[in-house]
Amino acid sequence: MVAVNDEVGGGEVGGDRTGGDPFEGIEHSSDFAAVPDAFQRLWTPHRLVYIQDGQQPEESDCPFCLAPKMADEKALIVARGTHAYVLLNLFPYNSGHLLVCPYRHIATYDEATPEEIAEIGSLTQVAMRVLTEVSHCDGFNIGMNQGRVAGAGIAEHLHQHIVPRWALDSNFFPIIARTKAVPRLLGEVRREVADGWPKDEN
C-alpha cells in the first residue's frame, strides 16, 4: 500500500478512481477524514526492515568486527586508526559513502571511550577533506542512527555515516523504484579515497 497526497507537482494523483484505476491499491489522502496541510509526503514502508526484530547479525557475524581482519581491498577499508577505522558503505547512498567505526563492538555513542570519540571525530574531518578533494562534492550528510528504532541497519556496532552530496543529486528514483543509481564501482572509489588519504593520518 502506498499513500500519496492529492497533488504532486500541481496535478491530481490517482487517475479515475471510479473503475479501471491504474493506481488501484494506492491510498489517496482524500479517502480519509483530515484537513490537508502544506506538506507533501512520500510513504516508504519498505524501510520497516530497519526497525523490525530479527534483522541484526550475531556478534560473531558483525560486518564491522569482521572487516578489520580482512585485507583493505576486500573489506573496502580506506584508512585505519588506533581506535577506529574508515570503510566504504557496501550499500551506498552516493558514491564515496563512508562509515567510521570503532574497532570495539559497542552499540551507542555514549558507550565509546574519549579516545574513540576523538578518533571518530578526527577521521570524519579527514574523510570530509579527502572526499572534497577527490570527488569535488558540494556538501555532506553526517550522522549516526542509534538503535533499530532510529533506523540503524547494524544497530549493535556503532558507525557514523559520511555521505557526500552534490548539487541536484537527489531524485525520486530511490523511493519510487527502490533503486539507487551509483555511478562508480566500489573498488574504484576505495582506491581513490585511500590514495587521497594523508599518509601521516593513518
TrEMBL record:
Residues 1-27 are annotated as: Disordered. Residues 14-27 have a biased composition (Basic and acidic residues). SUPFAM superfamilies: HIT-like. Substrate binds at residues 89, 161. A motif (Histidine triad motif) lies at residues 157-161. Residues 63-172 form the HIT domain. GO terms for molecular function: catalytic activity; nucleotide binding. InterPro entries: AP-4-A_phosphorylase, FHIT, HIT-like, HIT-like_sf. CDD domains: FHIT. The active site is at 159 (tele-amp-histidine intermediate). Keywords: Nucleotide-binding. This is HIT domain-containing protein. It comes from Cryobacterium fucosi.
